[in-house]
Amino acid sequence: MLYTILRNGFHNPITLITGIFASLFVVFCTMPVHECAHAFMANRLGDSTARLSGRMSLNPMRHIDPMGAVMLVLIGFGYAKPVPVNPRNFKNPKAGMALTALAGPGANLLMAVVFIFLQNLVGMLPASNVLASAVYTFLLYAAIINLQLAVFNLIPIPPLDGSRLLQLLIPSKYYYKFLRYERYIVLVVFLLLFLGVLSGPISEAVLWLYEKLDFIIGFPFR
């Protein structure tokens, strides 16, 4: 996020400050919701591993990964500590893992909807109101970052949440062979993000999703 703002240039320091605060808000307030959603879903489906590990919590210190948090502030994409899940505790391991994985991006999407709704409420205030303008920008960034996290995590490559969906589509033996290269895949993914190769298509998808949600949610305010 910070890198994007600086790269595109800004005419008002409030934009930069608001973007930083929005990123920090996501790190300390909304990323824990993402991880807690994983733990909650796993617990509901029969696996209490995350709950017993203290991960079914909104306490950010239980979820924050320092490097992942820094990356989110800098480029709008980041990660937290993986929630421990034992698929053997699910009645249907493949379906259980898929639903648990989807709970995180689903939580981000729900939070984005809330932020867009609040953004439309604040947008009804006079544009000359400096505080209202700052809050509007904050809500915009918070919504965008949550959508970025949702879209990014749905990419079907390990260790992202979308990779869990592959278990439903390909044989287990091929899936686990794929996981052997997880560390190398992660490095390549974040390299492509920094170079802008991957962030471009993701940003396009996020913008499209934001516009559709804003059109639907903001319709009553027009």
UniProtKB/TrEMBL annotation:
Main location: membrane
GO cellular component: plasma membrane
Chain ranges passing through the membrane: 20-42, 63-80, 95-118, 130-155, 184-210
GO molecular function: metal ion binding; metallopeptidase activity
Ranges of residues in domain Peptidase M50: 122-195
UniProt GO BP: proteolysis
Compartments reported by the entry: Cell membrane
Cofactor(s) listed in the protein's UniProt record: Zn(2+)
Membrane topology: Multi-pass membrane protein
Keywords, in A-Z order: Cell membrane, Hydrolase, Membrane, Metal-binding, Metalloprotease, Protease, Transmembrane, Transmembrane helix, Zinc
Record has Nucleotide-binding as a keyword: no
UniProt KW Transmembrane helix keyword: yes
CDD domains: S2P-M50_like_1 (cd06158)
Residue ranges of coiled coil: none
PANTHER family for the chain: ZINC METALLOPROTEASE MJ0611-RELATED, ZINC METALLOPROTEASE YWHC-RELATED
UniProt family annotation: Belongs to the peptidase M50B family.
The name this protein goes by in its record: Site-2 protease family protein
Protein's organism: Candidatus Fimenecus excrementigallinarum
Upper lineage: Bacteria, Bacillati, Bacillota, Clostridia, Candidatus Fimenecus
